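ok trying this again, last paste got cut off
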Amino acid sequence: MTIEIRAAREDDWPGLLEIEQSRYGQSGYSPYFLRMVPLVFGATCLVANDGGLLVGYSLGAPESGRPERAWILSLAVRPAAGRQGIGTKLATACIDALRDRGAVEVQLTVAPDNEVAVRLYNSLGFAVERTDAGFFGPGTERLLMRLPLSPVAS
């Protein structure tokens, strides 16, 4: 298996939708949003390509009005491609892309019971800043995690 990590392209959106639905079903991002992701987020939406099949993606973006703070909005890997280091590669590439665009810190939220994701983010240096009991509304507890970034070397 040779995984290529690259910026998402407009023609990747069907693969993005398949990945999203395989991970989150109907509770994930809408087809409309995923159709727009490669167009709107450009180089901070990255895909993992395995011989023409998209097996994962990460989506990052600077915070509006505060480009020094960025967010990882999503990280998803097809269940069949899990536990192969693809999530780590995507997260690392997303962090690098955000740093290259001026971010000095990256934040994200994750469900507290998503132990695999929490371990992944901890391994990359993220730390829990706080728990929000209703981040997406009542009963949607999330951990807010933060990673300070070192500046880009000149």
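PB: full thing came through this time. Helices lie at 13-24, 31-41, 86-100, 115-123.
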